[in-house]
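Structure (tokenized):
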């Protein structure tokens, strides 16, 4: 009997597992408010896109964003789904916590990651499920 095809993308392998763990490690570091662990997830020439912000390019601008510009206070990211295709991961989940101004929030998100050859995030794009248009 032949091997069954995976329903999405390629079958699980160690690289796929590594990328899934890298995305979860990123969210875990955010939830611990561990800036250095967050930054360690990214390649030095990272591109980060987030609606409402200029494109963040490079480690120093990423540090500035996470240490001051980010509007979310530490909270909890609940990742519901992750799909892996080649060096890309799509994640979907919910953030529960508060804004830096103190208001409590729960908001869905979709995030997309591309990895470099060293297993670090080279590109990251995040969208939140909030009324905009």
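Design, position by position:
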């Amino acid at each position: 009997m032949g091997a069954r095809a995976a329903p999405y993308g390629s079958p699980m392998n160690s690289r796929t597992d590594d990328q899934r763990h890298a995305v979860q490690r990123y969210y875990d570091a955010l939830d611990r408010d561990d800036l250095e662990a967050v930054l360690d997830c990214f390649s030095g020439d990272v591109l980060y896109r987030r609606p409402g912000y200029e494109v963040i390019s490079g480690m120093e601008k990423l540090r500035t964003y996470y240490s001051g510009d980010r509007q979310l206070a530490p909270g909890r990211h609940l990742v519901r789904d992750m799909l892996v295709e080649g060096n890309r991961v799509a994640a979907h989940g919910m953030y529960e916590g508060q804004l830096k101004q103190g208001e409590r929030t729960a908001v869905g998100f979709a995030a997309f990651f591309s990895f470099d050859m060293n297993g670090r995030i080279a590109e990251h794009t995040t969208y939140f499920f909030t009324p905009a248009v």
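Reviewer-requested clarification: Residues 1-12 have pLDDT under 50 and may be disordered. The beta strands are 42-49, 56-57, 76-85, 88-98, 104-115, 121-128.
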